[in-house]
Amino acid sequence: MLSVKGLLSILRKLKSAPDQEVRILLLGLDNAGKTTLLKQLASEDISHITPTQGFNIKSVQSQGFKLNVWDIGGQRKIRPYWRNYFENTDVLIYVIDSADRKRFEETGQELAELLDEEKLSGVPVLIFANKQDLLTAAPASEIAEGLNLHTIRDRVWQIQSCSALTGEGVQDGMNWVCKNVNAKKK
Amino acid sequence: MLLHLWQYLYNNYFRFLMKWILRQVTRKCELQRIVDGLEPGASRTHRVEYSLGCSKSKVLRRAVNVDMDDLDKCLMDIMKAKKIHKQKDPRFQVSLRVCLLQISGYKQLYLRVENLRKQPYDSNNDEHEEQLMELWSLLMPNQELVSRITKQWGDIGFQGDDPKTDFRGMGMLGLVNLLYFSKHYTEESRQILSRSNHPKMGYSYAIVGINLTEMAYSLLKSGTLKSHLYNLVPGVPQLEHFHQFYCYLMYEFDKFWFQEEPESIMLFNQYREKFHNRIKGLLSDQNVVLTLKKAN
């Protein structure tokens, strides 16, 4: 049996182990669900969300990492500012409203432009096919095909279906993020 | 530790002992002393609310959560429980009634605001659509919308070509507030809209408006708006009083934003927080009344 002293020292070690800081960039069109996802990650109330002017940032502890998540507004008017946040990004999370088929083309274009950015080259990308709680949501496989994700060869990537509203699939996505934090191709 | 002990002793023993002594000396109960000693408004109503909430008597404790319909009966029960004769102290009943109306009224107002917030914007609902169109025509009197779904919505600060997805967690409350501001302060809202199009320091009028609805809502929910409303309304506060407070926020935020000269819209949340703290500071003063004062 573990003595109290032993247990305490283990706890102390766990506490003192410095977490690796990870910079995560959360992008996507307006109304994709980025802020809801951010609040879901931080276990905060998601019922009073308003459109993001500018950005939100939160730090979340996960699997020995300190994830600094930057949620940048998705409105067309402020997309030109996205590039100000590219530097030192460890993982890019791109959020898609899977039920908004009318904007698949627009979201695909934005994603393609991001993947072309020099400052984001080699950065692992997780695509969240969000809003799977809606009946009209397209499945992740359909989105992957529509966005030609299989042509991405210069980095590791993953598509994960989720519902930021119910939390389903979010943890699976974050597990992938933690596994691939250090997979940045030089 | 000592402080906790003192608080415990005070709340459980000394407070009642003090009250008993004061009662013997003044021949009045605590509620009477509060109503006699303090001017009507937040200072009096806050003290009454606290005194009722701490009371050992069920009748008195119930009074802070009483329904409007039961309010007068509750008032009679308090008079009876405290053995206060209407003839001996006729002002007391009237004054206490106002306090109870304010205390219950605040809670009722929150429920009404919450109901509006919980109602999502629905583009199949004609009433919702009409209000959205009215907002457009009030803000843009010289421009027609070319269609229901159009990039023009961006001109009044919505994000995309259909505003319906921008109300989010604020639901109809966000739209009703925006519309109220444009209806009652038409000139001011147009001026603010035109200023919000500033090439460098501009912001999205409607989106910021919805964000300020969230600010007003959370201030109401947390009870921070109590002093303001207790001072402003000698009775039951109405939805209109909430909308008026929202108008004050819209007007003041715009002034604040341009005084601060932020580098770009990306710093919005930082300045929002600063503004929020300033408003909370103002609201913490018991004599506060925040109303929109137009600069002529």
From TrEMBL, chain A:
Main localisation: cytoplasm
MF terms in GO: GTP binding; GTPase activity; metal ion binding
Signal peptide residue numbers: none
CDD domains: Arl3
Family: Belongs to the small GTPase superfamily. Arf family.
PANTHER family, per database record: ADP-RIBOSYLATION FACTOR-LIKE PROTEIN 2-RELATED
Keyword line: Golgi apparatus, GTP-binding, Lipoprotein, Magnesium, Metal-binding, Myristate, Nucleotide-binding, Protein transport, Transport
Residue ranges of the TM segments: none
This protein's GO CC annotations: centrosome; Golgi membrane
Swiss-Prot/TrEMBL GO biological process terms: protein transport
Pfam families: Arf
Residues where Mg(2+) binds: 35, 52
Organism: Microcaecilia unicolor
Keyword check for Nucleus: no
Protein name (database record): ADP-ribosylation factor-like protein 3
InterPro entries per UniProt: ARL2/3, P-loop_NTPase, Small_GTP-bd, Small_GTPase_ARF/SAR
Binding-site positions, GTP: 28-35, 74, 130-133
Subcellular location(s) of the protein: Cytoplasm, Cytoskeleton, Microtubule organizing center, Centrosome; Golgi apparatus membrane
Bilayer topology: Peripheral membrane protein
Lineage, top ranks: Eukaryota, Metazoa, Chordata, Craniata, Vertebrata
Automatic annotation (TrEMBL), chain B:
GO cellular component: membrane
One of the record's GO molecular function terms: GTPase activator activity
InterPro entries: ELMO_dom, ELMO_domain-containing
Domain called ELMO: residue spans: 127-283
Transmembrane segments: none
Pfam entry (one): ELMO_CED12
Protein name per UniProt: ELMO domain-containing protein 2-like
Source organism of the structure: Microcaecilia unicolor
